[in-house]
Design goal:
The chain is 81% helix and 0% strand. By secondary structure, it is mainly alpha-helical. Helix 1 packs antiparallel against helix 2 and helix 1 runs parallel beside helix 3.
């Protein structure tokens, strides 16, 4: 790995997103006023904007690196886990969404390793994975920004996001099965 790969703008933005995680967690867990919750939401917005911008810069200015291909999804997943994790303090039902997310991501990690051993890699997230991520983040933003949502609304949001996580898991499992069948000739 080239040393200058460590300091490309997209990779620096991924480091920044990683650094934001404890600041967001602290801000949310200590928030008491709507302004403080809005600040925590703002940190999530900055993280999300940085995520979108780092990918754009990497593609547009040819600054994509192997390190970035590893670092970007790690920053994404850790952010998502942290947000769902802190939301569980106010609404334990977020544990269901967090559990589904961890199951999906663990499954995908294992399957990607199996494919990698066969010299095959997936070219980024598929549409169903992107939709699941968008719904996941939308749910998180709403719950962080509106800390006094009633229980039925929170349950609806968690069930809605869980549906898309489950759907993405289903589609990815079919994709991985088909890839393994085509590789193994079955």
């Amino acid at each position: 790995m080239n040393k200058k790969d460590w300091f490309t703008i997209p990779n620096i933005m991924s480091y920044f997103r990683l650094v934001l995680i404890p600041f967001f967690s602290y801000a949310y867990l200590n928030a008491q006023t709507q302004r403080e919750y809005a600040f925590a939401t703002g940190l999530l917005v900055v993280s999300g904007a940085t995520d979108a911008l780092d990918g754009f810069i990497a593609r547009r200015f040819n600054q994509g690196t192997k390190l970035g291909q590893l670092l970007d999804p790690i920053a994404d997943k850790l952010t998502q886990i942290a947000v769902a994790g802190v939301l569980m303090f106010n609404w334990p039902v977020f544990g269901l969404l967090l559990l589904l997310f961890i199951i999906k991501e663990t499954y995908m990690f294992i399957e990607n390793i199996r494919l990698y051993k066969k010299d095959i890699t997936l070219d980024g997230a598929k549409w169903y994975g992107k939709i699941a991520t968008i719904v996941f983040y939308l749910t998180m933003f709403l719950a962080v920004f509106f800390p006094r949502l009633n229980e039925p609304t929170i349950i609806f949001l968690v069930v809605f996001a869980s549906f898309f996580q489950t759907r993405a898991l289903y589609h990815y499992s079919r994709l991985f099965q088909n890839l393994h069948k085509s590789i193994d000739g079955n």
